[in-house]
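Records of this kind hold a single protein each, on a pair of labelled lines. With that in mind, the following record should read easily:
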Amino acid sequence: MNTAVPKVDLRSLDITEEKRTRLRELFPEVFTEGDKIDFDRLKLTLGESVDVGKERYGMNWSGKADCFKTIQQPSVATLIPVRDESVNFDTTDNVFIEGDNLEVLKLLQKSYFGKVKMIYIDPPYNTGNDFIYPDNYAESLETYLRYTGQVDAEGRRFSTNTEADGRFHSKWLNMMYPRLFLARNLLREDGVLFVTIDDQELDNLRKIGNDVFGEENFVTCVAWQKKVSPANDAKWFSSDHDYVVVFAKSKAVWRPNRLERNERQTGYYKNPDNDPRGPWNSATYTCNKTKEERPNLYYPITNPNTHEEIWPKETAVWKYSKDVSDTHLREKKIFWGTDGESSKPRLKVYLNEVDNVVPRTVWSYDEVGHTQEATQELQEILPDSGFDTPKPLRLIRRMLSLATRGTSSDIVLDFFAGSGSTGHAVFEANADDKGNRKFILVQLPEPVEASPYKNIADICKERLRRAIAKLDSHPQQQSFGDSDPKTLGFRTFRLSSSNFRMWNPDVARDAMPLVNQLEMHVDHVVHGRTQDDILFELLLKSGFPLSTSIEPLNVAGKRVFSVAEGALLICIDKGVTHELIVAMADMKPERVVCLDEGFAGNDQLKTNAVQTMKVKNVTSFRTV
């Protein structure tokens, strides 16, 4: 009996098929013969009348249909580990990826689907200056490989968008839409997205955000005061603020953390009467209800100092019932003015009893920093980098405070990483509260003019290295650095083509004859790729995060990698033996992956391996 061994799927998650599967589970009755969806029947199932041909509200632009084609096209790329450009590669949970973020977001779908707590991005503002994006979305990997010189540089290249372009806004939307769509998939149900943007594309960002997340999941639009001084050369108004647009994965689930009181807010609490309960502030004792609306709250309170009966206004009665007011009087929590004779009582609110502060929708530069501060921060840690649009660390720290907690292991994603401000902010936040937040940063290796660094990705990596060195060497941070090395470091990966040659039945015969394709797949591992490269591709495409623990083992004389404490076993060695198969099965993993060529064409051994794994209750045995 020749039992076929399933192959590892080297494509990224098929978004379309995933959604069809979910739809089929919920509404099997709307699928017709040939596995087609009857959309009219789906509408009827959902209680909607079918009315064809009517106009409807929505946003459209040139290229939107192609965006969906882009989203639905799985990636066959991989992420190659680059150990010599990393810090603490084997111990850290942080990840930096150099590559086109569209392709990378596809690759992250299997491993990080529904796992990211917070996404912050600072995308191109589309101000009339160039921004880079792939010419041909359908071939974004090939475009990227040519752009970065990994293949012949002739042909496609990354193009730019300028204000003179007739499809100026459409190109920005075509760049942003699929990225937001894929990013949403990665968010947890209690996850949140922050996007910094200016006036130029704010309206469009809100609209595509509504389209991707649902209008009901729009949270707010924060005004961030980005400048200290006005621009006196402005033609109309000095542009002193940008925006932070906030969307929740599910607004019904997500709630922002309250903010700690700052020095100014704490300063409102004094203790002029030496109250033993500590500093206090006073709050009004009346509410906005009338005597007719709340008759039980219309009663007199006697000032204990003057013995005068104080009545509230009939249009603004007391805030508390008489029983509560009597308690306040007894506990001396009512403030009667500095002389004790006021006719307008106020409630003492003690600093040690108040909650943290609810976040507001205006962020001033003295609270969260400004652009000049951001430039100075980058200049101090990385002089003359050539990067001119960083965001202040305090701005990103504010978002981290609202969306994450140091006590958790929240994942923070930034796929327009720029100079690495997000990673730097995560390092600092963890240092302050002994937290365990993790980051994933993605940055295109876009060239930088007049810089000692080759590209923006190199700037980002170097900033992270220097931020780590600064925190690690600071005396106050020494215990932090020693207590959890996972928080200081990052694993570097570089986007590249798969380690495995893909069978392509559509290739032109004159370009590569069929016999050549067959010969190529006898040894289908790309020349020059290492075991490390192959290992991380199998890890990623088996649905494990890039930070997963990996332990090399010697099993029956072969090197076997134990992933996630034995949940997955990967053998990349050639010369697979029956003893090796039995030994791996005895380790009781959930899954086992071997190279197909490891069996050297021995179909009987492969068939026996399938049966051995079944007997030992190994859920999945695959080859690649």
